[in-house]
UniProtKB/TrEMBL annotation:
<keyword id="KW-0732">Signal</keyword>
<dbReference type="Pfam" id="PF10677">
    <property type="entry name" value="DUF2490"/>
</dbReference>
<dbReference type="InterPro" id="IPR019619">
    <property type="entry name" value="DUF2490"/>
</dbReference>
<protein>
    <submittedName>
        <fullName>DUF2490 domain-containing protein</fullName>
    </submittedName>
</protein>
<feature type="signal peptide">
    <location>
        <begin position="1"/>
        <end position="24"/>
    </location>
</feature>
Amino acid sequence: MKRLLVVIGLTLSLFLVLCSTSFAQTSLTPSTPWGTWFIGTVQLPGGSDKWGGFAEVQARGNAVMQQFFYRELKGGISYDLSQHFTFTLAGGHYATYDFRELSDGPLNTEKRFWQQLVINQHLSRIKFEQRYRIEQRWFNNRDGSTPFRNRIRYRLNAFIPLNKPTITAKTAFLSLFDEIFINPKGPTFERNRVYGGVGYQVDKHWIVQMGWVNQTNYSPASFEKGIFTPQSATGKNNILLSLTYRIGQGKNAGSSNKLPSQAD
């Protein structure tokens, strides 16, 4: 028990450092209002045959529960390489709108394809998940331009079950993560996303989560016409509401090795 308390303390301390860093980055620009992220996911966890998959819809509001401006539709297939390693191929369609002019259609759309490796590591009751992702992104902007971009993402996620040693039916848990987004062509550090929330796995099928997510985007430093402009950052805090349904696979459904991580 003493070891567990020490580990939980270190994990929470790391998360508080990440939060303070995120707020410091956000303060470089004028404060922004809170937004809302809604996420609905259907998952097919890998069972005895090791194959799985997911489908997800996501909508975001510029304000709390209103001013819709963004949506995602995505899905993919996964394969459990072993008990702790899962490889995924997935893709999605994304659209960004002006919430004041929704009838005008999207400002831009994006088609995205990615390859992903997830590594699960369990330390006593704390469950760590490391996610490595490589993305290919095709844009279609309203002005007719169609740029292409690559991106690399890394996320470290920690889960702490509160009333049971593993996350199974009727388990409350904490979820904390930090994710960095890297542009291979620069600026190298493009985005940072920090999340902290609580969740509850109702049964072997349903999982609900609610929390706070801060997303900070970075603009590169520049030197034009003799004027140096330092790197800037714009951040936004959001309320995140998530509902997940897992398609049952007999005794393998709700396995403690299948963490309730978000596909986004």
